[in-house]
Amino acid sequence: MIGFLRGQLVAKQPPSLLIDVNGVGYEVDAPMSTFFQLPPLGQEVRLFTHLAVREDAHTLYGFGSDTERGLFRTLIKVNGIGAKLALGILSGVGPDEFVAAVQRGDVSLLTRLPGIGKKTAERLVVELRDRLGDFNVGKAAIGMRKPVADAPADAVGDAVSALQALGYKPADASRMVKSVAEDGMGSEELIRLALKATVK
């Protein structure tokens, strides 16, 4: 099992990033809550990791804090919640907000997340309400820095693609991004604002 990675951030295109660890490039999928805290390209980053092994793929997931990784691991134990859906949940709402929503039974907020219908939201509340009491959310992420905007040539297109990779339908992703887009915004800022607007 790979517990964490520390290396140079080589590339990032939500939700995927590439980390050079002593000459070996690790492809890692990360939730947007982690993405927003990444340092600029070329800087050192440290991520807690979870390796998902399936017959057809080995996928490495990265998180800015051990608490966030623990929440991911708790989510994938829920019937019907796979790794991709768990990543979408953590991208759509921060760990603090998710734990609070589950503990107060806020099904309406949960159904605004990608791939979560009413039955799945209710299952999350029932199965996780008691299990999430031990989560110490709000911890500072380690090995992370304040985000620095990298403004790609097509920030809107990149933001829409990232939301689709997180499970949003193409039309919904496009609408979400266009509703918050302004001149000069980078893709990460567009994604952050689009996700924030979704869970209000």
In words, what does this structure look like?
With 200 residues, the chain is of the alpha+beta class. The chain has three domains: 4-63, OB fold (Dihydrolipoamide Acetyltransferase, E2P) (Beta Barrel), CATH 2.40.50.140; 66-134, DNA polymerase, domain 1 (Orthogonal Bundle), CATH 1.10.150.20; 155-198, Helicase, Ruva Protein, domain 3. It is built from nine helices and five strands; from the N terminus they run E-E-E-H-E-E-H-H-H-H-H-H-H-H. The chain has helices at residues 32-35, 66-75, 83-92, 95-103, 107-110, 118-128, 155-165, 170-180, 187-198; strands at 4-13, 16-21, 24-29, 44-53, 58-63. A hairpin with a 2-residue loop joins strand 1 (4-13) and strand 2. Residues 138-153 have low confidence and may be disordered.
Domain tally: 3
User: What is the count of β-strands?
Assistant: 5
SSE order: EEEHEEHHHHHHHH
Strands side by side in the biggest sheet? 3-2-1-4-5
Which topology of the largest domain does CATH recognise?
Answer: DNA polymerase, domain 1
Mean pLDDT: 82
What is the radius of gyration computed over CA atoms, rounded to a whole number of angstroms? Answer: 16 Å
Main pleated-sheet profile? 5 strands, antiparallel
Instruction: Tell me what the CATH architecture of the largest domain is.
Output: Orthogonal Bundle
Going by helix content, strand content and strand pairing, the class is alpha+beta
* Proportion of residues in β-strands: 15-25%
- Put simply, the count of helices is 9
